[in-house]
Fold this sequence. Notes:
The structure holds 2 protein chains of 2 kinds.
Chain A (H helix, E strand, L loop, with lengths): L1 H23 L3 H24 L10 H20 L10 H23 L4 H21 L9 E2 L14 H24 L1 H11 L1 H6 L4 H27 L1 E2 L6 H14 L6 H19 L4 H14 L3 H7 L1
Antiparallel strand pairs in A: 1-2
Helix pairs in contact in A: 1-2, 2-6, 2-9, 2-10, 2-11, 3-4, 3-5, 3-9, 4-9, 6-7, 7-9, 10-11, 10-13
Chain B lengths: L2 H32 L6 H19 L2 H27 L4 H23 L10 H4 L1 E5 L2 E4 H23 L1 H11 L1 H6 L4 H27 L5 H16 L4 H27 L4 H26 L11
Antiparallel strand pairs in B: 1-2
Amino acid sequence: MQFIRSFKFLILVSLLVLPIIFNQIGMSFYLDLATRLCILAIAAVGLNLILGYGGMISFGHAAYLGLGAYAVGIPAHHWLYGGLDFLATNNGFIHITIAIVISGLFAFLTGLICLKTKGVYFIMITMAFSQMAYYLFVSIEEYGSDDGLVINTRSQIPLINLDDPIQMFLVSFSSLIFFMWLVQLITKSNFGLILSGIKDNEARMVSLGYNVYLHKLIAFVFSGIICGFAGVLLGNFTTFISPEMIDWSRSGELMFMVILGGVATVMGPLFGAIVFVILEEVLSSITIYWHLPFGLLLIAVVLFFRGGLSSLLSK
Amino acid sequence: MDYTLLLIQVLNGLQLGVLLFLVASGLTLIFGILDFVNLAHGSIYMLGAFICASLTYALDSYLFAVILSLPVIAIIGYAFEIFLARPLYARDHLDHVLGTFGAILVIDTIAHLIWGPAGIAIPLPNYLDGQITISENIEIPTFRLLIIVVGLTAAFGLLWLVNFTKLGMLIRAGASNRTMVAALGIDIRTLFAIVFAIGATLAGIAGMLIAPITEASLGMGNNIIITAFVVIIVGGIGSVKGAFVAALLIGLIDTLGRSFLDDLFKLFMSTGAAENSAPAISSMSIYLMMALILSFKPKGLFPPRLG
């Protein structure tokens, strides 16, 4: 146990220190990689809340990343180029508020319908709704349709300059730590225990008098908001926002991270994101056809290796 | 209202609906009977288009290419069942989703390696490339009509196969209780593989039919698969009849929405607002319809009774 705990601590410290060291010796590429890793890990933490702890297999969580990113992109676009004055701003707090409201609302409205269903229905409906968001942004020419939206600015937050890569990384890293802590807090709370009770035996929780639908809906909305926040960071990080962020293969990758890392564990989503980002980097540097080995690996993981990396660690 | 345009768009909607049915019926069959979620079904649709395209150039005949592609796709479906689906039957749906997601990446990349990044157009023979004149200002492309006919034939053939043949009887029996069927001396594993191959062939046919119109391209499978999901969710997962009704409904709503929604909006809002909002709303129309139907019938229009 002691060994595992210090191993996890070591991972977190290296994730914080190594990219900055690399950056100082002129390898800024690794800093960007680590920023992206942290952002994806936040989204995976959000997904893990419902997938891991709540047993709700959402195949549409990339939608929230996209919504969060557009919540930065659209106000910034109007701030830069005019139009829709009530929306035009580069104030980071307003971006975050819009992202939270929109992703929460999207999760609430789709959740109302998705959560009436279970199993395969749930998987497919979450997928369909995220595709709806995808086609919505593709159809709006004002925001670049397929080509996406380039914003030459970032969210303005007092005392923080997101244009500085190191500060961008530190914000992403500390957000990740914050959300890992928050999700752990939720899962240890009364609410979290009810949630995992629902995952294990829904009929029993109904009999015990819990409002299962409501608990699931709250978790679903919360998970969407976390991913929406990750989207705000992603939009600021790339300053290029396109419907491609919502493509369902992005949702599949998020699921891959959560499951490979080990569902319903605190560190799992982070492990999953680390493995995913490294795999993507290494494989795509070897061949542009990196989806081939990646797909084969995914199949192999499913066929031969269950429970994820975290379970491997705790054995 | 332009009735000629309306008629043409209704036919286009039917054509889309029929293609959606060919893809969705395989999905729903595989799910209803094998309890297996196959995300890679769209990739088989894509393979159908590409294989047919290559064979058309090799044989210099679209018709022979289609005839030869059918068994090829069936064999691919059969192999897919043996190597990927069969080991996963006992697992939960999450593993099906992840495993077949991996399969999509593999199949799409292999297609990319074989056929390259650009799409391949398929030339039609002259006898399919013409127009059928209905009245002096209404002409319908022969091939689009053929798609509708082939799709409807496949639909009724499938319903007949499942409901009125010995194989269909075994399939339905296997769906309700596979252990019992196996105990009666039926080779249930081969039976399931056959079902999988039938489903794959139906998707392959859809790919072969659409390729001469849109050309065979890499993203085509991933574009249609989600719409096919919407079809089987609306129709009720596992119900072939539901898939048929929902496919035609969605084909029509999608096509008509794209061409007439702005006219409809202009009735009660300014032209500018209508032209801005119509594309956004019509791109979401089928998902909004799905949401509407599910809020009244969470298990779709025709929930199957299979356990």
